[in-house]
Structures are given as structure tokens and as C-alpha cells.
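Priority: medium. Attachment 1 of 2:
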């Protein structure tokens, strides 16, 4: 590792950031809307250097100056402090385990317990949560992040020392993702993986230093981390960060025509944007400015879930923008994308494999590779974008790969004669996509079975215009318990899991049908209870 505790290893991301900081001392990396302050690339590198030293001291590793792939969990709100924290862990040779800012204590404890971090870093915003977490964790040191402020004269800042790069094969990031097992797994990617994932987007979507991204996505998932932060910083762009999405703020920002160039979001966010426009902007004196401002953006992308055509059409009518749709997954970053060229944005299609990403379709039953067109198959992916492992779960990792090393996504698609892919859904009914988040029906069922009143439960995803799917619970109540209602159920479950996993639909039934093998057929349940869905 490098000479001093402050030196920043020239990993590809830091090499690029250094270049932008040298070229223009005033170049803004982050606009932090919560702090109301802007931070240059120069200041960011300086703060990363100081935070790296701080981390190594807190971890008791001053002597080696290297976290050696130890995990660092951190609970930091979206903004400059988050970016600094993430880069400092990477600069120190550690693995980032970003914690979700809306998770209840129990779910945070699960992530901390499973990822076995050397340190848990908590931002003062989450002081209350910290006290509760500390009650349950004594073996791992907790440290408080000291919030950062913008320098009064950023152009006078000097650059910190740099050192040789670390191996890009080191683990870098661990994102918790729900899968076919009931507990979320830590998906580990290396620096090589995340640099590849971000670079392929930079090339395909032509990010540049003149780009300005309005960033509203959560930062415990790759959509916000890789497509939003990493690819933008790799290109010298400016990222304007908000704690969360709010449609009013976005329309106001877009009315300031030309002040931002990119926006990335999930279909639910576009649904909310068009609804807000119709309810509050259409027919008012702001209408023309809102339409023109949105039309002026260079790139507006939708992903993480299927984009319904009505939302795409309404957005187009309002803004003149054809949303660019792409397909990805925590384990592989982005794999398939429509083109920058508007003619290459086909309705209902996610487009073509990104440069360097190999994609094929395999028969669901036999695994045989599908060479022809218009035939359904499971998407399989290979390339430097593909993750390394699920943390501490070699068997689960091995299970997701074919014998010849392709990752099995579990998504079903069809390929047209022009090579474009059309997603048909997921092979498993137990994975639900709601608001862009993946939720394991098995995890929700397991948590619900922990409640006194629930004797049996089946959790399904009910199609929904706004959320894509809603999490719905069909429950057989335990005799003798107080009648179940949705509000009480939600209140109890919010203690157990993230708000987006908690069912928003409840059906209490006398019995949950099972087949001769004692199995529940969820497709039949959906048809029975939501025949119109
Ligand atoms: C929240 N609520 C929901 C819900 N989520 N109701 C139904 N279904 C859901 N999924 C409820 C809350 O419980 C609350 O109700 C009310 O809605 C408002 O909650 P909220 O938390 O404030 O929601 P909101 O902020 O409005 O969030 C909506 C959202 C958010 C769409 C902005 O979900 C979001 O940012 N989604 C993006 C997720 C994302 O980045 N996914 C990418 C994963 S990576 P009450 O009654 O409880 O108060 C990936 C790979 C790839 O997928 O390809 O990108
Ligand atoms: P996650 O596991 O949270 O990373 O979510 C990845 C999943 O989101 C994929 O396996 C798909 O099921 C889904 N997904 C992502 N992008 C799209 C898209 N454009 N269309 C349909 N589904 C998508």
C-alpha cells in the first residue's frame, strides 16, 4: 500500500477524479441539497484522504495502512458525506457496506451481523438509531462520522498525496439483495466489476464533464450507486444530491432550463412525475417552462423494473422525451440498454447488450441455449460486470452460475430478429418488484409467520399501475387472536423490515388452497383473489 496514511491509491475512479481536479480546481463534484453547499473534486479528494486516515486509525490499522478488504458498514444520508465515506473506504482498501437509511433496527442488525464489519460508521443524522444498534452489537466498534462543510476558498486547496493503485481484483462493494432464499444476501463486487459496470454506461450513454445529474435514488442499491454516482464521477460530471425523491422539487428544478442534463429513476418515479404534472402544472402558468425545461435534458433513463407503456407515452407527451430503458441487476450492474439514438428506444424492449457484456437466452427447463428469435428463455450473462460472490455463501453463489460460467439472472426474455431483448417477467413468482425494489415473498412470509395472529400466509405481487407490483398477503388467521387489519399488520411489520417490503394489501381467508403435494400455487391464488389484475 502507499507511503502515508493520507495517500489515495490511484484506482481508476480516483485517477479520473484527480485528472478533473487538476484540470479545473473549481469543478464541482457534488451539490449537496441538504447542506445547501457545493463541493469541488479537489475538496472531495482532500476530504477522502483525511477520512481514510481517520478510518485506519479507528480500525487500529495505522501500522499497515490497509483495511485489507475488511468490511465497513456505514449509515450516512445521501449527499457529500456519503460520497466521501464511500471513497474513503475504497481508498483505505476496504469494502463498502452501505446501510439503508429507511431500514428498521432489526434489518440493520441483520445486515451488520451478516457482513461482519470491522467498523460501523454512523452519521449524526441517525443518532437515535445508533443508540438502539449499540444495545445489540458489542463486538464491533461504532464510530460517529463528523459531517463535512464546503471550503470557503476551494480553488486554493491543494491535492492530497497519491500512491500506486491497489489491485482492482480486490472486493469493493457489498449490496444486500433479496433472492430466492428468504434472507437477503450480500452481493460482492470488486473494483474491476464496478469500474467496468460504470465505464460501459459512460461509453454507451456518453456521460461527460458537462453533465449534471439530479440524483434522488437510494444509495444502498446499484442504480443509485453505479449508474448515478460512480459513472458520473468517472466522467467528471456534477451530481446534485437529494435525500429522496419528491416530484414537486424535480419539476421546479427542470423549469430552470439547462441547469441539469441527466435524470435516472424507476418507473414509479415517472408515474409520480406525470401524475404531479397533471394535477399541479398542466393548465397553470408554469406549464410551458416545465415542458421546455424537461425537454432540454440530454438523457432521461428508466430501469429497475418494467416501464409500462402508458407511463412512457404520458411522459413523452409532456416532455417530448422518449425514456431510455435499460435492464440490470445487483449481481451484474447494467447488462442491456436501448440506445442514445431515439430510434434505438423500442417500445417494450430493453435494447441490446452493453459493450463488453455477453448475453444469451437459455431454455428454462433444459438449459439449452436458444439461438432463434421470439422464443422465451432465461437471460444469462457473462463479463467483467458480473459479481464475485455472495458473501460467505459459496453454495448460493455456485448455484447461480452455469457449468460454463454464465450468471443465471432468473429473468425471462425474448430476442427479436434485430437482436433487441424484450423482458417477459421473472421465472420465480416469489420475487416481487415494487417501486423498483426487489422483495422476496419468502422473506415477508417468514417475518409474518412470526406474528401471533398469522397461522398461514402466502405473499404475492399484485400488478399495479403506480408501483409495478404491490406486496399482497393472503392470510389464514390463528383462531382466537384479535381480528387482523392492514394498519395494525403494517405497524407491526415495519419493526421487522424495510417499509417497501411491508404488504399494502391484506386478504384474510378461511383457508389457503394447497395442491395434493401440500404446495400453494401462487399463480392460482392471484387469479382467484385478483381476477382483474
Ligand atoms: C413505500 N410505500 C409503498 C411502497 N414503498 N407502498 C406500496 N408499495 C411500495 N413499494 C408506502 C410507504 O409505506 C408509505 O406509506 C408511503 O408509501 C410513502 O413511503 P415512502 O417511503 O416515503 O415512499 P416514497 O419515498 O414515496 O418512495 C417511493 C419511491 C422509492 C419510488 C421514490 O420507493 C424509491 O426511491 N425507489 C427506488 C428504488 C431503487 O432505487 N431501486 C433500484 C434497485 S437496483 P405509509 O402508509 O406507510 O406512510 C436494481 C437494479 C437495476 O433494481 O436494474 O437498477
Ligand atoms: P435487483 O435484484 O434489485 O438488482 O433487481 C434486479 C431485477 O430488476 C432484475 O432481475 C429484473 O427482474 C428487474 N429489472 C431491472 N431492470 C428492468 C427492466 N428495464 N425491465 C424489467 N425488469 C427490470
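Attachment 2 of 2:
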Amino acid at each position: 500500500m502507499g507511503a502515508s496514511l493520507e495517500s489515495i491509491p490511484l484506482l481508476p475512479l480516483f485517477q479520473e477524479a484527480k485528472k478533473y481536479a487538476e484540470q479545473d480546481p473549481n469543478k464541482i463534484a457534488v451539490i449537496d441539497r441538504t447542506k445547501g453547499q457545493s463541493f469541488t473534486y479537489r475538496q472531495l479528494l482532500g476530504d477522502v484522504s483525511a477520512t481514510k486516515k481517520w478510518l485506519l486509525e479507528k480500525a487500529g490499522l495505522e501500522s499497515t495502512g490497509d483495511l485489507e478488504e475488511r468490511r465497513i458498514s456505514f449509515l450516512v444520508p445521501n449527499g457529500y458525506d456519503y460520497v466521501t465515506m464511500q471513497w474513503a473506504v475504497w481508498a483505505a482498501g476496504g469494502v463498502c457496506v452501505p446501510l439503508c437509511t429507511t431500514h428498521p433496527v432489526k434489518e440493520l442488525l441483520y445486515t451488520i451481523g451478516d457482513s461482519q464489519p470491522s467498523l460501523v460508521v454512523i452519521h449524526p443524522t441517525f443518532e437515535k438509531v445508533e443508540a438502539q444498534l449499540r444495545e445489540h452489537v458489542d463486538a464491533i466498534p461504532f464510530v460517529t462520522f463528523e459531517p463535512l462543510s464546503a471550503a470557503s476558498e476551494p480553488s486554493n486547496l491543494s491535492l492530497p498525496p497519491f500512491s500506486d493503485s491497489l489491485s482492482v481484483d480486490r472486493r469493493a462493494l457489498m449490496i444486500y439483495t433479496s433472492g430466492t432464499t428468504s434472507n437477503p444476501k450480500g452481493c460482492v463486487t470488486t473494483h474491476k466489476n464496478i469500474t467496468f459496470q460504470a465505464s460501459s454506461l459512460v461509453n454507451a450513454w456518453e456521460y461527460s464533464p458537462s453533465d449534471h445529474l439530479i440524483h434522488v435514488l437510494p444509495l444502498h442499491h446499484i442504480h443509485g450507486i453505479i449508474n448515478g454516482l460512480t459513472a458520473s464521477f468517472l466522467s467528471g460530471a456534477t451530481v446534485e444530491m437529494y435525500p429522496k425523491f419528491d416530484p414537486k422539487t424535480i419539476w421546479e428544478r427542470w423549469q430552470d432550463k439547462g441547469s441539469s442534463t441527466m435524470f435516472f429513476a424507476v418507473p414509479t418515479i415517472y408515474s409520480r412525475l406525470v401524475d404531479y404534472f397533471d394535477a399541479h402544472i398542466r393548465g397553470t402558468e408554469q406549464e410551458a417552462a416545465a415542458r421546455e425545461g424537461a425537454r432540454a435534458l440530454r438523457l432521461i433513463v428508466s430501469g429497475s423494473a418494467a416501464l409500462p407503456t402508458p407511463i412512457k407515452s404520458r411522459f413523452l407527451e409532456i416532455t417530448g422525451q422518449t425514456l431510455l430503458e435499460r435492464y440490470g441487476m445487483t449481481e451484474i450492474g447494467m447488462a442491456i440498454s436501448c440506445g442514445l439514438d431515439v430510434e434505438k428506444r423500442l417500445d417494450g424492449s430493453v435494447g441490446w447488450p452493453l459493450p463488453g457484456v455477453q448475453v444469451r437466452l437459455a431454455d428454462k427447463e433444459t438449459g439449452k441455449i436458444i439461438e432463434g428469435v421470439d422464443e422465451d428463455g432465461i437471460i444469462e450473462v457473462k463479463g467483467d460486470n458480473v459479481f464475485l460472490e455472495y458473501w460467505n455463501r459459496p453454495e448460493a453463489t455456485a448455484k447461480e452460475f452455469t457449468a460454463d460460467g454464465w450468471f443465471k439472472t432468473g429473468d425471462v426474455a425474448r430476442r427479436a430478429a434485430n437482436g433487441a431483448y424484450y423482458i417477459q417477467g421473472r421465472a420465480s413468482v416469489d420475487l416481487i418488484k415494487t417501486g423498483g425494489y426487489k422483495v422476496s415473498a419468502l422473506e415477508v412470509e417468514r417475518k409474518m409467520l412470526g406474528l401471533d395472529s398469522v397461522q398461514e400466509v402466502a405473499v404475492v405481487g399484485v400488478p399495479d399501475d403506480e408501483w409495478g407490483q404491490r406486496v399482497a398477503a393472503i392470510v389464514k388467521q390463528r383462531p382466537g387472536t384479535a381480528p387482523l387489519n392492514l394498519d395494525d399488520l403494517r405497524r407491526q411489520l415495519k419493526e421487522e423490515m424495510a417499509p417497501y417490503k411491508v404488504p399494502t394489501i391484506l386478504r384474510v381467508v378461511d383457508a389457503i388452497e394447497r395442491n395434493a403435494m401440500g404446495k400453494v400455487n401462487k399463480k392460482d391464488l392471484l387469479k382467484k383473489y385478483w381476477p382483474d389484475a
